[in-house]
Every structure is written in structure tokens, then in C-alpha cells.
TrEMBL record:
Statement: the UniProt record of this protein carries the keyword Cell cycle: no
Keywords: Membrane, Polyamine biosynthesis, Transmembrane, Transmembrane helix
Residue spans crossing the bilayer: 12-31, 43-63, 75-95, 107-125, 146-164, 176-197, 218-238, 258-278, 290-320
Name this protein carries in UniProt: Spermidine synthase
Matches recorded under InterPro entries: SAM-dependent_MTases_sf
The organism's taxonomic lineage, starting at the top: Bacteria, Pseudomonadati, Pseudomonadota, Alphaproteobacteria, Sphingomonadales
Amino acid sequence: MAEPQRAGRALYVLTILAGSFLLFLVQPMVARIALPRLGGAPAVWNSAMLVYQALLLAGYGYAHALDRLPVRRQAAVHLGLLAIASLWLPIGVLGWRLPSGTAPELWVPWLLAASIGPLFVAVSAQAPLIQRWFAAARPGQDPYRLYAASNLGSFAGLLAYPLLVEPLVSVAGQRWLWTGGYLLLIALVAAIAWRLPNAAVQRAEPVADDSPPSWRRIAMWVALALVPSGLMLATSTYITTDIVAMPLQALWRRGRGIPALAVVGAICALLLMLREWGPAAWFGEDSPGLIFAVIAVVGLASIGVRAAYVTVLAVSLLLFGGINALRITAAGDIRTRSYFGVYTLSEDANERTLAHGTTLHGVQLLGSPEREQQPTTYYTPSSGVGRALTIAPALYGPEGRIGVVGLGTGTLACYALPTQYWTFFEIDPVVAELARTRFSFLRTCTPDAQTVIGDARVSIAAARPQSFDLLALDAFSSDAVPIHLLTREAFADYGRALQPKGLLLVHISNRYMDLTPIVAAAARAGGWQAIELMDRPPLNEDGASLSHWIALSRDPGVIDALKGYGTGWVAIDQAGAGAGWTDDYASILPLLHP
């Protein structure tokens, strides 16, 4: 069937662009939809990427299997698959709940695959199929030029989501936007299928040395493919451990070889080191910055010389954290890992500590029963939550009902009175085990406290109305607060769980973001009065850390009582807080510290 040359080529290019754009747009989009429901841990993003890679491979395998059919029959089969997959529209995550006792590392990939599997496979197959159909319709023309269009669409999708789609479009709007794009893709594929020739493609005879690859070579290809995927997932995990699990890190995708990765990596690393250590670390007696600079220069100079570059890379990995990581890992139960993070225990004669990722999550002083029951770190008596729990008996009586979201080491338990009712909400069973076996706060201060395992927001939403007098929100994944715990709808759940004069404490200490506007917006929407306290304890105070807490209540008298207990509380500017976060919309870009 004859076709106008330029118009026909444009149709193939547009179809390739649309398919690749949708494919790479859906990856951060579905992860963004899933993260709040699945706990907001960095591992959820890794699970999503694992599913994407598996589905992408399945799509390529499906496209390869269709090669045995004539091109028009290929098009008919593929249009049928696109039509069947449309039953999963609008795209999103199924509303299934995590069954009790099911490991999240198995459940999350299964949930994501069931939610988007058919759509992802169908869209991922279109690039190789369209190239094959182009070769059939235009014998003698190189179809691999369309690969450039595929790359362009892929990068456009990755860039468009964090910079345009997520900041400007709600989650519901994103789902329908992608649905419209998918229907357009079906129309484009149908238009190409209508123009395909009836005759089978004339295949080129294989040359003499066109032997199938050996299993050893295939294994090598698989091993090499693991390297960039592993680097990408490791980088995403590192970023989302301390900020917030969100699709911004999707911008780092398939690099163009080691040189670009090395240059960019050396510049990110140099800036971070300058920020963390300051100029003195570069030129003093102990100058890690200068050492790093020398290694980075040698590494860049050795690009292209494989043995030299590998040697420099190995040395840098060992010097900058590798040796310490190996030492900690070899020590046995000092470091433990769960689906929700990596936890590191350390102990000396004076204190026992727990770190989650790169952030200190609890310190217990040692040496005497009094020291072991002393609240430390972000929970000292001068902190916002320390002051609130101290006056809780005066506000709510000796039998107050206290809820704590985020167990950590259980430090807050030592504010408890024997007659109070305490409930801890913790998503990670490993943390609950560490708190009860390696730290003694819970055992000595609240032995009868209830610990609810699971996502705190789901558990609080299911609780009876007015179940608590005071609720402390202290859920962190390393240095990041999960997004779904700070949305307007989440604060509505907290409001239902608190009695009318209840007090809500929100911990927002963070090295990279100021979350005050988010809490202020939720307070304004929910009719809360809000004050904040930035506590800066003396440097010589054992185990104390700087902390930033916000206190909210719908009763002005409660806020006045808290403000009267010590100085430092200031009112939050709710009028200039902006729209804040909702379950349908959230972006961290405006919150990042310069």
C-alpha cells in the first residue's frame, strides 16, 4: 500500500514518541500513587523499579515472540492486547490491603504488577514492534533511526513528571491524563496497522558468523545489565532515605557511559562534602576533602583505561565509607536490615544508640537506672513533645490516653504515668523488636503499653473516634517524614481520633526541608490552632539534640496552657502557608533548603 513518504514517517515517529513518553511517565506516577499507601519507605520505590524492569523484559519478550507472524497479524494481535489492557484504565494502584502476616517485600511487587502489568507490557512492546513494522512498510530504510525518537520520548516522560505533571496536576488528573494518552496511542498504532503491507517481510539471509550467542555470553550480558540498574536503585535509596520518597530521583536514569557518570558524581560529591565539612576540611591536617579531590582527578584522568579506573573506583569505595560499612556488617547483630530501612546499633560505656539510615533515631544513657530512663535526643524535657507530655496529666487527668506514631527506641515511654494508657504505632516489626530487646525504655516505663504494627495512618483511621487525649506524630524514615502522614486528609484522621480538647504534636526536624508550611496549611484547613518550638539544648547536655516540634489543638485553652509552660513557643503563620499537601497532590520542591 503506497503512502506519502514524509507523512508516513512522521506517523511512526509520533507513535514511538507517544509510547515511550507514556512508558516513562507511568513509572514515577504509579510509584507516587503507591508510596503513601505502602508506607512511604525508599524500598517501595525499589520494589516499583524491580516490577518495571520485569514488565519491560516481558514486553520485549512478547514483541520478540510476535516476530514469527506476518506484520499485519502482529498488528492485529497487538491491538487486541492494547484493547484488553485498557480494562485496567484509569491507571492506578488496586485498593487491596496488605494481608496480615504477609511480607511487604513480596506483597508490594505483586500489588504493583497486578495493578499496571497488562498496560505496562503492552506499551513497552510498541517501540520494537513499530520499528519492525517500519522496516516492513519501507524496505531498505534503516528502522533504528526511530530509536532516537524512543529515547527522546523516554527522557521527556521522566522530565515532565517531577517538573510539570506532579507540581501542576492532581493525582486524579494524572490518571486521566495518562488514560487519554493511552487512547491516543491505540489510535496511532491502528493508523500504522491500516497501512502495513499484506506480504511478509523478506528476511535477510544470516551470514556465516551469525551464530547464536552462548549461554556464557548471555550470562555476561545479564551481569553487566545489573550494574547500572543497581547503581540507579542505590542512588534512589540514598536520596529518598533522607528527603522524601518521591519521583524527583527518576531524573537520574540511563546514563551515557562511565564518563558522564563520573563527572556528575564527582561534582555531586564535592558539593555535599563542602556543605557537610566546610572549607577547613579541605586544607587542614585531616583533610578528607583534599584526599577526595585527588582521587576524583585521578579517576577522571583514568577514564578509558579499564584497569586503572576500576582500581581508583575500588579504592575510593573503601576509603569513603566502604571499610566502615564492612566492619559494621562483620560485627554481626550491630546492623540489621528490614524492608523499611537499615538500622545500626552502637554502644559504649556511656550510651546505646540506634541509627536509621544516616539519622540518629534514639539514644539511651547508661550507668544507672536514672540515666537509663532519662529522655534524650529530640525528646528531652525542653523539647516540644517533652513539655506537652509533662503537662498532660494536668490537662487530661492521671488516666490520659496517649498515642505515639513511630516507636523508635521507645524514649517517650519514660514520660508515662502508671495510670495512663499508652499506644505506640510502628510500621516496622524489626523496630518494635529492637525497642523491646536492645533498649529498656518500654520494659521499665510502659510495660503494659500496646504496640500496633502497621501503617499508622491506616490504624488511626480505623480507631474509634476520640480515642486519644494526646497524639505525638514522630514517624521518620531516616530523616524523612512520609508524605501521607502530613496530608490534609491525614490531619482529619488525627482530628477524629483525638477528643475535642486533644493535643497533636508533630515532629518536623529535618536537615533538608522545612515542613512548617505543610503543617500550617493542614492546620488552617482543619481549624487547628498551631504553635511551634525550635529547641536548642546546651551542647554539654547528655544525649540531647536540636528538635523542631509543632503543637496543634482545636481548643485555644490547651494551646495557651502549653505556651505557659516555658518560653520559646511561637505562633505559625497559617495565612501564608499555601495549599499544603493532600492525598491527591504533594510536591517537595518548594520546601527544599537552599
